[in-house]
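Dear support,

I submitted the protein below through the web form. The confirmation email said the job was done, but the results page showed an empty box. After a refresh the structure appeared. I'm attaching both so you can tell me whether what I see now is the final result or a partial one.
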Amino acid sequence: MNLIETFQDLVAQVPELVQPLIVALAGAIPFIEGEGAAAIGIIGGIHPIIAAIAAIAGNFLCVAILVLASSGARQAIVTRRAQSREGTATAGGGVATTTVVEEGDRRSARKQKFQSALSRYGVPGVSLLGPLLLPTQFTATMLAAAGVSKARVLFWQALAIVGWTTIITLIITGALSAFL
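What the results page shows now:
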């Protein structure tokens, strides 16, 4: 039994008031996200609007926590590096004693691809098209770690989550209506 089937069984077994919470929990899991969670809820018998709202809420809450955490971590690293450079410059009589490794040498292939996509499509494009390739949790974390403002990341991620979840909800609801 896979994770999606587990959530579908769980939705069917819990009281009606708890079902949206299960859908929200599923929405917080990468690769299931809002789209998959909405599908789980709808197939599990929850009204499509309630399933979509719960899935969106779970997915966005997880993304918001990750953006806030990764943005805070980035800020701490940037601050520590700045303080380290200041301390090194003054300790050596004005001459830096550490070798600075170029950032380009340390980037992995994935990071370079992400930076290229960010340069090409911007935050809106990466956020809106990102779910086709990566979970929103990964995309949002990388955007925040790249230095994009928290508000901008959260705005575009919210738009992407709502958009993709709504599209999938409409497709599943239409397919179920056509076949049932």
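Response: this is the final, complete result; the empty box was a page-load delay. The CA atoms of residues 134 and 149 lie 20 Å apart.
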